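So, can you check what follows?
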Amino acid sequence: MTKPTGPGLDPALSERRQLINLAYRMLGSLTDAEDVVQETYARWFALTPGRREAIEAPGAWLTTVAGRICLDLLRSARARRERYVGQWIPEPLPDRAEWTSGRADGDPVDRVTLDESIGMAFLVVLESTTPAERVAFVLHDVFRYSFAEVAEVVGRTPGACRQLASSARRRVREAQTPGVPDATQVGIVRAFKQAWEASDIDALIGLLAPDATATGDGGGRVRAELRPVEGAEQIARFFAGRARTAAGVTILERTVNAQPGLVAQVDGVVGAVLAFDIAGDRIRSIWTILNPDKLRAWTTA
């Protein structure tokens, strides 16, 4: 589980990027991921120097601790999200070029590797798995750790961890849509933006799958629909209606979790981030994150 380290680099501190990547995919929250990594290092430095020196693979120790903290957080999150106001959507991440602009060196958001495993659709599906399934799947299928190593984190046998990962993998495969070329996704999202700005209901309907869903997350902090809006016509009318009443709103094309998305700015301040799941030439899902607690990476860029 260890990674190569550079000359003079503390072998434990060099694992920070890996831990942030693990924790974000396990939790769907950069804020929580950062807290997990801080707690992991707090436990590392709480060890006596002798105990730290006796640990042959610091990366394995840190990953095990971080994984167990994530597992505990996922279990407690079930109860917290039952009290969450409205729908809970994972925290969106901006493109690296945006989040590094004007930001301090070493910000945790700059350590997240952008690939398909941070796609919003992927993270949303993981929300439907059990905590143990999610941890086992992320460790094995995403980061390629052996089931013997996963067992150290989850506290079950390697065989049991194999079953956990298999269950999560099945859910992911069932929810996956055929890959759509980036250029096609960009074009569809751009067309949605233009139709939204024009309040063109017919154009919006033409871009949406008949059974599409639109989900908003205001977290009780800002106004958002408490339940998903379902169906192409209903979604089209919903967005068109919002466009007519929105004053001073600018819609921008941005990369959201490594895929084409949109950002709504009000007087230059990010008020919402939209992520899309596209199947073929139609939008299947729209996730709108409005909770300001989940927009820190966008508002401080």
